[in-house]
Amino acid sequence: MDDTAGPFQRSLVEGGILVESGIDGLYGFSASYEKILRALQDLVTESGLDQKAFAVHFPPVMPRQVLELTDYLRSFPHLTGSIHTFFGDDRAHAELLALLDSGGDWPDALIPSQVVLRPAACHPLYPTCAGQMPDGGKRFEVHGWCFRHEPSLDPARMQAFRMHEFVYIGEPATALSHRDSWVERGVKMLTEFGLEVNVVSASDPFFGRLGKLMAANQHDQELKLEIVTPITSHELPTAVMSANYHQDHFGAAFGITSADGALAHSSCIGFGLDRIVLALLRAHGLEPDDWPRALRDRLWP
Fold first, then answer.
1. Average pLDDT in the 144-148 region?
2. What percent of the chain is helix, strand and coil (3-state, nearest 5)?
3. Among candidates 26, 61, 18, which has minimal Cα distance to 281?
4. Which helix H or strand E contains 201, and what residues bound it?
5. What are the residues whose beta carbons fall under 8 Å from the beta carbon of 1, sequence distance 6 or more?
6. CA gyration radius, the chain
7. CB 3.0–4.6 Å: which of 48, 64, 177, 251 could bond 263 by disulfide?
8. For residues 258 and 137, is the Cβ–Cβ distance under 8 A?
9. Whether this model's pTM surpasses 0.85
10. Which residue ranges form the domains of the chain, and what is each CATH number?
11. What DSSP character marks residue 292?
């Protein structure tokens, strides 16, 4: 976090826009913040109506097996959120309470459940698509809460945040064009919001030494593009949209084929709704009633 992130975070908290929870990167949100986010979410949906995407939305938890099959645990163990719960009897419960009362590590008495926190809005989608895609592939719209264990005082790096995605599954060429066309749409939308944006080649925060090689490969092939804008730093702008070409990664993991029987390729574009709200607050001020008329009319026609 650069030295401007702290003051911006404090201004959001002091202004009642973000409510601190006592955990870095975990907040409550004011009514005005949520009003902006809901309007933004509606605009994102509107921008994709011509795609005729199948809209499907999942809860913020997903089957543990899905996390394993996506290889997320291999690539991002440091970001993973596993849900543990109590499976014991009365004796085990007494031991749990003893740990609690003594200030011990009571989570040690819990056991992993069959669900984990969803790290990306689209991940629960792929197992539902096992089998053959129709000719031309298929497009989907998904959104909702995601979690990544990345505690930070930078308000743009929340542990719990909302993503709105458009996904394509099918032929390679169409997957790539889906990604690139949404980058163009995203740049247009954010520029119309009065934000200063750039498109950059990027890589995911893969873990460990092998992860560095994976990140380099992802960057070299330009599999991941990000649309960045200043939030807490002009020198290090923040990604507010992510555009990813997965090649056949999810097709292979979940047994999805294209109409010709080959492994399906996929791509997704993700709008980071909370980050875009923060970018708007940083660019135009903390009081939406004082924002430019054109922007207010766009969000709340």
1. 98
2. 45, 25, 30
3. 18
4. strand 198-201
5. 152, 153, 154, 157, 232
6. 21
7. 251
8. yes
9. yes
10. 5-81+119-299 (3.30.930.10), 84-116 (no CATH)
11. -
